[in-house]
Amino acid sequence: MLSTSEQAAWRNLEVQRMIAQCEFPAVRELFQTRWIDRSPEIEALLSSGPEHFFNTTCQRLESQLNRCPACGTLCRTARARQCPSCPHTWFDSAR
C-alpha cells in the first residue's frame, strides 16, 4: 500500500538506522553510497523528519481503509460491503 517513493523513504530510514549501529567504516560507506536514495522526491518526504513521515504516511493509509459506515469497524477486505461486527450492509450504495 506504500507508494514507490514512500518505500524508498522507508528504506532510507532503515539504512540510516543500520549505519548508526554499524561499527565498520567501510560498511557504513557502502551503505551510504549504494543503499541511500538521494533523489529530491525522497529528500522532500524526509525533510520534516522521520516522525512527520511516519505520521503522514499512516494518516494516508488509514484514510484508505474500508470501514463500516454505521459503526466504524474495520472490514475484512478492501471491497467488503458487509460489516463483520454489526448487521449493516451497503451493497447498493456507492462509496
Describe the structure.
The protein is mainly α. It folds into 2 domains: 4-63, no CATH class; 68-95, no CATH class. 52% of the residues lie in helices and 0% in strands. The protein has 4 helices and no strands. Helix 1 (4-21) runs antiparallel to helix 2 (25-34) and helix 1 (4-21) crosses helix 3. The chain is elongated and about 60 Å long.
What keywords describe this structure?
52% helix; 4 helices; 0% strand; elongated; mainly alpha; 95 residues
Task: Write a compact overview of the structure shown.
This protein is mainly alpha-helical and 95 residues long.
Domain unit count? 2
- Nearest-integer average pLDDT: 92
Shape: elongated
Helix-strand string: HHHH
* Uncertain stretches: none
Helix content: 40-55%
The counted number of beta strands is: 0
Distance between the termini: 19 Å
User: Count of helical segments?
Assistant: 4
Largest sheet: none
Q: Strand-residue fraction?
A: under 5%
Structural class: mainly alpha
Work out the radius of gyration.
20 Å
List the helices and strands and how they pair.
Blueprint: H1 4-21, H2 25-34, H3 40-46, H4 50-63
Helix pairs in contact: 1-2, 1-3
